[in-house]
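Form 7-S
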Amino acid sequence: MRFFIILFGSTSLLFAQGAEQAKYLLEQVSNKIENQKNIRFEFQYVLENKEEQIRQETQGKVTLAGDQYKLDFLEVIQIFDGDKIYTIVPENEEITVSSPEESEDINLNPTQLLNFYKEGYDYQWDISQRVMGRNIQFVKLIPSEENPDIKYLLLGIDVDQNTIYKLIEIGNSKTITTLIIKNQEENISLPPGFFKFNEDNYPNYYINK
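Output:
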């Protein structure tokens, strides 16, 4: 009996240590992001459901500075100037102007990618991998409350650079969504008004306000 008490006590301690390690690593990533003047990166987005024989893959790029961002994804350009969100659809020559409260789609809000894990998740230390010369440590994020869509997430972090490398979402519907961050740059020189929407640049567009 004493052996089992020691065994299970040690196992609980290891889980606690793993959770603390995961939390510490996430804090290092968050602190680095918050200390940057701006960040720009490209990304690969893959949605896959093997049972349904579905695989969709696309590319995107985004520039962020504080709450402001400019996103090019799914043939849509989205600009947030800190006040309004401008969603530009070149194919339809249409622009929609909205407030952040009206546009809560996580797939079109890159600022959430960089800080979504701060609330609503429990952390576990997961596997480590060597990817193209980079040391990647995965942290498993499990929703603190029951989530109808998400079973769990795996966040891959470059432990040498304290940057996000990959985010894998395991859905309850057996859909796996993977986002890989590539070519990240920090503190780059941006032209004045980079995040400002200029209506004159879209003379023939219908603007829905």
